[in-house]
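QA checklist item 7 of 12: single-chain prediction sanity check.
[x] sequence parsed
[x] length recorded as 399
[x] structure emitted
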Amino acid sequence: MHLGSYLPAGCAFGFIFIHVATFTTILPSCPPECLCLSQTQVLCNSGGLRDIPLKLLPSTVEHLSLTRNHFPIIKSDSFAGLRYLRKLSLDGNNISIIKPFAFRGLPRLRDLSIQQTPLETVAQFAFAGLQNITSIYLSHNKIRRVEGYAFAGTTNLRSLVLTNNPITKLDSNAFSGLTNVERISFPSGIRVLEPDCFNGLDTVGYIKLAFMDLPGLKRGIFRGLTNINVLSIQESDLGNIDGDAFDEMTYVRTLNFLNNKIDSVQWLNWTVEQHIGHVKFQGNHILEVPRPETLLVEVEKLTVISNHFPCDCHIHSLLDGPLANGSMLEFISKNYCISPLEVNGMPMSNIDIDSIGRCQEEVTRGNLEASKDTADGASALYSCWAYFVMCAAEVLWIT
């Protein structure tokens, strides 16, 4: 039986009024442009918001969606006080600026998505201080530049997605502070890798650099990468490779060079101290054969297959060098010719290597070495003869 039947009419009305009033006071506040599904889930999608309604949001919100509004700027401390927030979406806004420490004060935030915006620059300290973030999605924006220390202090990030952005340059220290990342996804079209652009990335599971157009790999580009599971450089024009590019890169389990165009390898210096595991050199087109004396390849495992090398007079130095990995027959059975034109695309094993003369500089060098050996021999012989004459003269004098 309803409680109202035990009460006079006035008392029943008073009870209902008190009950409703009490219920409304425990409901969280909710911006009029938003839909508060609960105290922890708030949707403010397509609400025409021009600013983040921080003071009207329930402080207990865990999932907050602010997609398709009109936020041109994410100011510093824009979400301060939402200490329980775990997932935040800002997709589809007209965000052009993210101020330093914009997301400070969100200790529980795990997933952050800012996609489909006109954002052009990820500024210094824009994502600083997100100590427990695991995923940041920044794809399908207009990002051309990630400034140094943009992610400073973001120590537990696992996945950073930057695909589908017109990024042409990676700045020095752009990813400093990301100390334990499982995967960084870069867009295609990168044209400049500044020295130290990966400095500060302590432990990384997988880095893929693809479809780049570089004048070369220069000094210090990979410096600071200290514990990498896979570094893959592929489908790119790498220009001239300078061994300095890999200085101070250590503990790389797998280093891939896949399907690249390489003008020349000036020199390489991969030492035992760098602890490089498996280097896989596959499907590349190399326009100029590196000289054997410029290559120091001290790695645990080297795979060189399906590449195209010049099959001219330099082929002898190629087969004498470390890329042949001690087995000329295996090397020529698994690689191809890129030049001269008449043998382009032909397996190396199909050409008569012995009929190819050595390059003039190799012949000259060989002659000089032979001349030196002959001169050394003649000098030694002369020394012996002179000693013999001296001894004979001494004997005659005594006699």
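[x] summary fact logged: Confidence is low (pLDDT under 50) at residues 1-27, 395-399.
[ ] second reviewer sign-off
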